[in-house]
Design goal:
2 strands, 6 helices, two-stranded antiparallel ribbon, 144 residues
Length: 144
């Protein structure tokens, strides 16, 4: 990711303060997905498919691949804020929900392997990954 900073580094903070502010972010990460419980198991089955007839419906990987550059662009103003003395937590508190929303959009957008006719009959519709809404609703994020 390319980040450019314009302006003077001799402002109120100075370069050392900016470096210290950025160190608050170093080694930290944010993850989005489905963590724990039966919904996580269902997500893995859907993401990679199973040998019991569930085809791969890669909603997590699609969300990452389709939004990777958007995530980088999205956090730039938050990184600038950190350089100007703002909280490093603001980067994670903004990016986490944005990533989770991207996963939910991936689920809702469809474009996955079609459901079997028997599954459509059972569910009453043909939308893959959307049944009770529990897996969709279990999408969240966390700081690590």
């Amino acid at each position: 990711m390319d980040i450019s900073i314009s302006g003077s580094l001799e402002g109120d903070l100075g370069i050392e303060k900016m470096i210290n502010n950025l160190k608050e972010i170093d080694g930290k990460a944010v993850e989005a997905g489905i963590f724990g419980g039966f919904e996580q198991k269902k997500a893995v089955w859907q993401e990679y498919g199973t040998n019991r007839g569930i085809p791969s419906r890669p909603f997590l990987r699609n969300a990452l691949y389709e939004n990777e550059s958007r995530f980088a662009s999205f956090i730039l103003p938050y990184l600038q804020n950190v350089l100007e003395g703002g909280s490093a937590d603001g980067v994670f508190d903004a990016l986490g929900p944005f990533m989770a929303m991207s996963i939910q959009r991936s689920i809702a957008s469809g474009g996955f392997a079609a459901l079997a006719p028997s599954t459509i009959k059972k569910k009453g519709h043909s939308k893959p990954l959307l049944d009770t809404g529990a897996m969709y609703g279990a999408v969240t994020w966390k700081k690590v």
